[in-house]
Amino acid sequence: MMQTSENATISLTDAASVHVQRQLAQTQCSYLRLGLKESGCNGFMYMLDFLESPADDDICFEFEQDVRICVSRNDLDMVSGTEVDMITEGLNSALVFKNPNATSYCGCGESFAVNGDPASRGIDPGDLATDVGAS
């Protein structure tokens, strides 16, 4: 299922929706924030926070079963179009993010890069980690 806000989209698979709903109930929160931070060898990694209410600059996406995902306006262009899925392999389960804006991922899958000039987002390119193994 997909929700659109200000021409941005986030989709959530049924498996991810069930997982997020359980986590929201367990934490007694109403919102999940999908955010980004500078990290890893490729530039950005996803951050998840459970919230009682969204921040003033958040864009909220509402899904079935009272699942609400908030994204800061500052991060929205980098996560728009992302599908959030829940993958289970053996005994391990994890939320995964299928982001059409990601142009590369680090070897461990923890961080990603996007096209565009980091300076246009207020980021000093010298502050971003680089892929040491790249040639």
Can you offer a commentary on this structure?
- With 135 residues, the chain is of the alpha+beta class.
- The chain has a single domain (2-120), classed as Sandwich (Hypothetical Protein Aq_1857, Chain: A), CATH 2.60.300.
- It has 2 helices and 10 strands, in the order ββαββββαββββ.
- It has helices at 14-27, 73-79; strands at 2-5, 8-12, 31-39, 43-51, 58-63, 67-72, 82-89, 92-98, 102-105, 112-114.
- It has a 4-stranded mixed β-sheet. A 4-stranded mixed β-sheet has the order 4-3-6-5. Strands 9-10 form a two-stranded antiparallel ribbon.
- A hairpin with a 2-residue loop joins strand 7 and strand 8.
- The longest helix has 14 residues, at 14-27.
- The CATH architecture is Sandwich
Structural class computed from helices and strand pairing: alpha+beta
Instruction: Provide the gyration radius in Å.
Output: 15 Å
Give the neighbour order of strands across the main sheet.
1-2-7-8
Tally of structural domains: 1
Terminal-residue CA separation: 40 Å
Helix content: 10-25%
Order of helices and strands: EEHEEEEHEEEE
Residue share in β-strands: over 45%
Using the coordinates shown, work out and report the CATH topology. Hypothetical Protein Aq_1857, Chain: A
What is the global morphology? globular
Please write the CATH class name. Answer: Mainly Beta
Uncertain parts: 117-135
Q: For this structure, what is the CATH homologous superfamily?
A: HesB-like domain
Q: What is the helix tally?
A: 2
- Strand tally: 10
pLDDT averaged over residues? 81
